[in-house]
Amino acid sequence: MPERFDRCERFDQFMARANAAYYATHDPYSDFTTAPELTQVFGEVLGGWARIVWQMLGAPENIILAEAGPGRGVLMADALRVFGQTPVHFIETSPRLRAEQALRVPNAIWHDGLETVPDGPMILIANEFLDALPVRQFIRRGAGWMERYVAGSNYLEQPAEIALPDDPENSVREINEPAIAFVEQLARRQAVALLIDYGPLVSAAGESVQAIRNGKYADPLADPGSADLTAHVDFASLAAAASCAGADVQGPVKQNAFLTALGLPQRTDMLAQKSPQMAAKLRMAGRRLTAPEAMGSLFKAMAICPKGFPPLPGFEV
Ligand code: SAH
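A: This is the predicted complex of the input protein with S-adenosyl-L-homocysteine.
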């Protein structure tokens, strides 16, 4: 039975259901690509990052290495070659992607959320995870704010019970409540977490939800479950939530600065020299990840860590 999408629901509830249906039934990589899919060097330098963080934590034997939204498991498979083999915890809700991940990281332990990941010293990586979580949308109308709902293929608005800045008429604000809850949980656990995603350095008004269907931009409301819905990540609001929950925040910094500090260009060169048949692809991927007009500038890296933690690799000023 296909899920019914004809009832009236808040935009975030719609987005959550549409994305769950999408990830359960589609191969997302036929619609978009991501950093670990472009080059093995991305996962490898993050594996190196995690290895150094593990040493900074005092090299605990019971380290919990976790990833949220691991996609096809490529990032972690590449990272483990550098980090060393260790039990891995995956936070993933899609049964289809869990099966893909099991092909590349067979001994992983899967979870629906952070709640069931065991206690202990934790290093978590999430690349393009937060942007897939559902946002609430608010629109400035007159002296107040309305919240957006979805009924069938139409938007509806109802008065919002929320305090937001005095933006100009028709401005849109988005709030990603699950992302805020996620960073608060990381903060309370005293985890060291690396969040890589796309979004601005400074919170701003603006509608950022986009739908990708068959590799092209599409109407988010048309044929729910057939398109990948994402929203820009508001790093500033996540940083504020993490600090309120007792953690320190490092960054956000632009992806190109982060990956360059971690040695992505050098590792790319080294690999390209070793395997000339892969050289062109590796170099092109490296440029795509770091060029400001490609992914180097829109994507940011931000870390959450226990209070007083020393500067993490890639975040030293
Ligand atoms: N990190 C991967 C995948 C990004 S796509 C990469 O870089 O290629 C988003 C991932 O988050 C997918 O694995 C998707 O199934 C997962 N995901 C989306 N919403 C989720 C949720 N609410 N809980 C857990 N995983 C989720």
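The chain has a mean pLDDT of 96. Residues 19, 23, 28, 34-37, 69-71, 75, 91-94, 97, 127-129, 132-133 surround S-adenosyl-L-homocysteine (CB under 6 Å).
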